[in-house]
Amino acid sequence: MRNIIYFSLLVFLAFIGCSSSDETPITSPNTFKILSLGDSYTIGQSVCESCRFPEQLKDSLKLQFSSETGFDLNVIAQTGWTTTNLKTAISSENLTTDYDLVTLLIGVNNQFQGKPFSLYETEFSQLVQTATNAAQGDKNNVIVLSIPDYALTPFGQNNGNPETTSEEIDLYNAFAENYCAQQNITFLNITDITRQGIENPELVASDGLHPSAMAYSKFVERLLPIALEKIE
Hints:
The protein is of the alpha/beta class. It has one domain: SGNH hydrolase (Rossmann fold). It is built from ten helices and five strands; from the N terminus they run αβααβαβααβααβαα. The relative contact order is 0.14.
């Protein structure tokens, strides 16, 4: 009797071992990586962290996927950064090259600080290449956003010549759009949204200068379908 019980126990243990080895491994949920490069318009000066457009974009993307899908967002941006400042910051970040989506919005501080336009021409193209490298080397995973126009804010109306500011912003955006067209890189215009800042004060943050959470929501309305197309 004892031998029968012992033999049965061995058979049971052998069965358990075989069953466990045949189990399908549990795979981790898919995670999309997003990188946003820029200045105050990307970091979200004067709005809450979840209100800035990269965070709103991430949250909007989440709603389009199952709960098992994750989104990791890395923002490299600071208020006041020129193209030179952004390049320097990136060089110290040791960026990986596995991002599924990269956004770039830069240049307003070059204009505001009166930097040579030729500097923007040179460094903008370098930053686009950096963004492409980070986006798995695939330029189809990059979105360049146009520079907002601060001339149509209370600050812009009371500092300098608003018309000149708008003309210079147009110059920067025209160069960026043409460059992106030549390189087959997606360029998204959101400047017109910010040019409604005087007629619609709700589009301007409490500092009277930067976009509000509502304005960023309007950015994301345009960004979302493009971002979905790129990561799906």
